[in-house]
Specification:
The chain is built from 11 helices and 14 strands. By secondary structure, it is an alpha/beta fold. The protein folds into 2 domains: 8-221, P-loop containing nucleotide triphosphate hydrolases (Rossmann fold); 226-285, Alpha-Beta Plaits (2-Layer Sandwich), CATH 3.30.70.100. Helix 3 packs across helix 4 (112-120) and helix 4 (112-120) crosses helix 5. It is elongated and about 80 Å long. The structure holds adenosine-5'-diphosphate and magnesium ion (MG).
Length: 368
């Protein structure tokens, strides 16, 4: 028997395909009542992880559990988990309704259930149309309807926003939020944070098969780092003045300085105190997309293979499944991303000892 919790637990999950380590020591849980985004660039191991959660492939090590059980041990799995890994496999000559009725028959469900899920995904008006003429967005909706046929407690969707237009994405957002608001569990993958930004409550971000962030999206958003870019006649003197006030600075390729974690007034006052002329100053804020890019960047940079991203010191919830540490006094809050410019050729000037740590149903309104 399963525990009925609606919880997905991934523990020490690994998968290798020959020399390719597709998934490496993944640990996370997905809680009921929320939408969790499983985010990472193409090839970062999302589909492989979802396939392991669904028992379609075996892990090389570790395990995945749904309601406390491996998928293969769930009784009536269609009533526990609905999943879409691929929205292409429909018989082109079948109508949406007959496609779904194959499932109601196989699962011993009443025929009307097919029309109910078509309505849920806003496809009622296309019930008698052949799927061969469906747009990508309509296929996504029909695949979702198929996953919902057993009225499951947990929904697992692989890249459901692919091919959806903005109206389709907005509809998906409303659908997932209302699904989770009834206490059910949604795990949704995407290679685009922007697509999922307003849909998910929590995120698990993977890069090269490893977890680089696992937590609240609001916390990640709150940690958006700002920095001051300053051009001065005497950068070395300003860097020393900044250092004496506990601030770090990076030399940018154009000779100006980037000072993270402060504001322009502080930098201007320090420059004045040090007698340094300032030629220009600008405050820069990183948005969520830039943080996501920074966390996962380098995966397909076209250059030589690089190591996995380094977690910043003292930050909880970061790094490849590493232990969760309490924040250190004076350390950035949990979820603070690596400093801007890391890995982009900027030179970290101070502090020297840190140099190794850079590290509702809108209905179907067209061929959406
Ligand atoms: N069946 C397979 N055989 C060999 N390599 C695979 C197989 N499935 C996935 N991979 C590799 O594993 C890595 C992760 O792939 P995948 O899980 O599909 O990533 P994502 O879904 O994040 O785009 C990629 O390098 C991919 O080429
Ligand atoms: Mg994939």
């Amino acid at each position: 028997m399963h525990d009925g919790s609606g919880r997905i637990l991934v523990q020490g999950l690994n998968k290798s395909f020959g020399p390719i380590n597709a998934v490496q020591n993944l640990n996370f849980s997905v809680e009921p009542g929320s939408v969790t985004g499983f985010l990472g660039p193409n090839g970062s191991g999302k589909t492989t992880t979802l396939r392991m959660i669904l028992g379609l492939i075996s892990p090389t090590a570790g395990g995945a559990f749904i309601n406390g059980q491996p998928f293969s041990r769930l009784p009536n799995p269609a009533t526990v988990v609905g999943a879409v890994l691929d929205s292409q496999g429909f018989h082109p000559g079948q109508t949406a309704r007959t496609h779904l009725r194959c499932y109601t028959a196989a699962l011993n469900l009443p025929d009307q259930q097919a029309d109910q899920v078509l309505e849920l995904v806003g496809l009622s008006s296309a019930a008698t149309r052949k799927t061969g003429g469906f747009s990508l967005g309509m296929r996504q909706r029909l695949a979702l309807a198929t996953a919902l046929i057993g009225n499951p407690q947990i929904l697992i969707l692989d890249e459901p926003a692919n091919g959806l237009d903005p109206e389709g994405i907005a509809w998906l957002r409303g659908f997932l939020k209302s699904f989770a608001s009834t206490g059910r569990t949604a795990l949704v993958s995407s290679h685009l944070l922007r697509e999922m930004e307003h849909t998910v409550d929590n995120v698990v971000i993977v890069s090269r098969g490893q977890c680089v962030y696992n937590g609240d999206l609001d916390q990640l958003r709150a940690a958006q780092q700002s920095r001051v870019l300053v051009r001065t006649a005497d950068p070395a003197t300003l860097v020393e003045a900044l250092r004496q006030s506990g601030l770090t600075a990076e030399y940018l390729p154009d000779g100006s300085l980037a000072v993270p974690g402060t504001d322009s007034k502080t930098v201007a006052d320090l420059a004045l105190g040090a007698g340094v002329a300032v030629h220009g100053m600008q405050e820069e804020n990183l948005d969520l997309e830039q943080i996501f890019f920074q966390l996962t960047t380098g995966q397909y940079s076209g250059g030589a293979p690089q190591g996995p991203p380094q977690p910043p010191q003292g930050a909880a919830q970061w790094g490849p499944g590493g232990p969760q540490q309490p924040p250190q006094p004076g350390a950035p809050p949990p979820g603070t991303p690596p400093s801007p410019g890391v890995g982009q050729g900027y030179q970290q000037v101070y502090p020297q000892q840190d140099q190794n740590n850079q590290g509702g149903n809108g209905g179907y309104g067209g061929n959406a």
